[in-house]
Amino acid sequence: MKSEKPKDISRQYKQSTVRRLDTLSGNECAEPNCTRKLVSVDGSSIISKICHIEAASENGPRYNASMTQDERRGFDNLILLCDEHHTIIDNSENVKNYPVDLLKFWKASHEKKIMELITSKNLLSKYPLALNKVINSIGSNIGEILSLQDTENAPNAENKILHNNVIRYDQTIREFALYQGKLNKIYEEIEKQGSTKKELVLYNIKSTYLEIKKDYPTLDDIRKNADIIFDKVIEDIWEKIHNAPNKLDEFDQETIDFSLMIVIIDAFMRCNILEEPPKIS
């Protein structure tokens, strides 16, 4: 009996992945000199393409045989480009001019620019309840009870970034760590009301990380894939928010994603994502 060919899921993108790509595109092609929008002037027609940095299929441009299908469809391997630049970079005659490192540089630079723009919008002042609503959504249910790291005893960001070899999220962690005071005030208010929502949020984030960590059993594995692990935690938590009974329809995508990142970076600082550096006696 002929065995079935494994199903190709490299183009079956998670909703959370598409959402993050959309938010961090800023509705602009990621090619550095391109000013084309990704959604047409009618506000609904999509004129962009989700492009694989390393090809989805074996005969595609920049194909990497060592990647899994999940890695091929993962956030780290995808970039949003206008239709023209997607065609250009994947043209077999041009591929040598658009290597993986260059496209990853485009992606990182563009997403950094858009994140800085989003940060400058002061979304927490405009939508002060957004962060509370995100907390409520993440903490709407609880998994396994886990031990948690208290912020006061947590290692500083620099040590944790270096210990886990975080590269792409390095600057984001440093910038969003500034919002930890704001988040702590919200957590304090929640605790005064007798709620355990803070614990539920951190439990759910840590349990999400531990589930993902099963694919990266050693510290060396984690260090080689720290940014990808970060991506997966963010996407899985976003799915929890999307499926939570507390809907966030009153806020736009940027505001929800910005608030979510504050909570995620705080969890990283508390050592609920990635590994805790060894304590120096």
Automatic annotation (TrEMBL):
Q: Which residues form the ABC-three component systems C-terminal domain?
A: 131-275
Q: Which Pfam families match?
A: CTD10
On the tree of life, the source organism's domain of life is Bacteria
Q: Which InterPro entries match?
A: ABC-3C_CTD10
Q: What is this protein called?
A: ABC-three component systems C-terminal domain-containing protein
Q: What is the lineage of its organism?
A: Bacteria, Pseudomonadati, Bacteroidota, Flavobacteriia, Flavobacteriales
